[in-house]
Amino acid sequence: MKRLIICEKNIAARRIAYILSNGKAKQGRIYGIPYYYFDDTIIVGLKGHIKKLDFPKEYAKWSQIEPKKLIDVEPVKKIGEWRIANAIRKLASQAKSVIIATDYDREGELIGVEIMDLLPKNIEVKRARFSAITPGEIKKAFEQLEEVDFNLAKSAEARQYIDLIWGASLTRFISLASEQLGKDFLSVGRVQSPTLALIVEREKEIQDFVPKPFWKIKLRIEKNGIEFEAEYPEVIWDEEKAKEIYEKVRRAKEGIVTHYECKLKQDVPPPPFDTTTFLKEASHLRISAPQAMKVAEELYMNGLISYPRTDNTVYPPLPFKNILQKLAKVYPKEVREVLSMMRSKPVAGKKFSKDHPPIHPVDAAKLDGIHAKIYDLIARRFMATLSKNDVLEVKKAKINVEGIEFVADGLIIKEKNWRKVYPTKIKEKVLPDLKKGEKVKIIGARKIKDKTKPPKRYTQGSLIVEMEKLGLGTKATRHEIIGKLYERNYIKGRSITPTPAAFAVVDALKEGAEIITKPDMTAHLEQEMDKIAEGKKSFEEVVEESKEILRKAFELLEKKEDEIGEAIKEAVEKQNYFGKCNKCGGDLILIKSGKGKRFIGCSNFPKCSNSYPLPQKGSVYFEGEYCSKCGAPMITVIYKGKKWKKCADTNCGKN
Fold first, then answer.
1. Structure pTM?
2. Which pLDDT value is given to residue 654?
């Protein structure tokens, strides 16, 4: 054997072997690990990171070491996938060269570099970089091999190192202080905590919001049988002023048009998908960010879309018509439409990077379920970016009624182009053609009282956009951070609501060491890690800077350890309350058995033995609702991005 190709996962290894061998590759196994071979080539897949960064074994017991001391403990890399490591060693011993073909990003570079000490010394190692697992891209990548980027790998390793030290030391401190140990530990993290703080601060804004009343005056107007609405152009904060205007116009029979304009407006298609905008749009389909990313990665591995982790919204030169021909297998009507209205240049967004193109389809297949939904979203967005602008007719009129000016607007789609393939919501509003000086008939007036609304809660999509704006996390990690917040029972619901534990942890960190909850520090460290990738800073410099920030935070936290612990304990008790017992009136609370299984039990035990089993996976909480049939609490469950409500009593027919 002359060359060994190492991929990130088995599914990628199998597909790349099929492409490079023109379908002739055969499968073998070594130490139970599948590999593929043809001619003088063997291809094997990893399982992502086969090494795990962790503290030495002697630091595993939380109660036996002060959390702060972890800052200066040197983590070690341990092999977690021994069978894969042994397979790599064995296969590499027969090779003359090795090609690393892991995902082309920071994390992929590190995954590749981590296996290099398993290879024979002085063996030639090259790097294959590609953005899609298609025949054209793969063959080109293996014809134009590059060098391994050790700086890029080091920047990923710095993130791994920093996040371990921050996460482990702060998590242990908060959990020990509040006596939340075992499966109930309270996680804290460099990116996770400022993200949670955003959610908590938004919720506080909503809770503290005091609605302010205001009034609107609207008129119903008619011309040639077409009714439309005109509105007083300013928000009226004073009720007396609203009454005065309303009284002047409510009996009016006609108004005079003082201004009218009608313009055609070019409505440009949305730009190509980067990771953030893709996840935001997927959230509109009620698909969670972790789910959407998982499905996108599977579509990429199966050669259907380009690499889904990208900051780019500007297409490089791509075979657009060739891709459209492939899409015609699934979207024949839409492709005919696009070809008939294709723009001279695809739409470009504001963000450009050289690593990967925007997310786009590279092949087509008929799919089912969530895979079909995600693929359809990506395919239609791609087709929209190649299509002509829609043309909107925008109208505006000013109408004088009893000396008071009202404004009427109109908007209709005059020429639908890109929206034929990528439907988006747009509120059309009919306004008839008017002329300056003409009279129109008033058929009614309304005085409407309203009030200001609090800010909206974050959705997963809007939170990811905010995280990107503030420099929290990366395109590859933001969805994972949000998933972790759900798993740790810090947040719940589609409109993200923080739990009592979230309030307590964020308030405790703010009170103790506010820097941990601010995005500035995290964003700064992200920039420093970018400098490692660019060769401008060393791994050691950036890691030491992060440790110094953490040491200062601990100096502040340790002074308030008792207060922090008590506040969190109180909040967790509130979070574990599941309503009143329908047998004795006691409190129903979440309890862990000796084996770690959770259930709902009555606080009056052993006098009252009322209890209910709980799902052992996912987040569970009580929202104040009781079963109308049996009186037991209704519990809400969130697991793998899905949410449902059920009666706690498994014997109740309402489940």
1. 0.85
2. 63
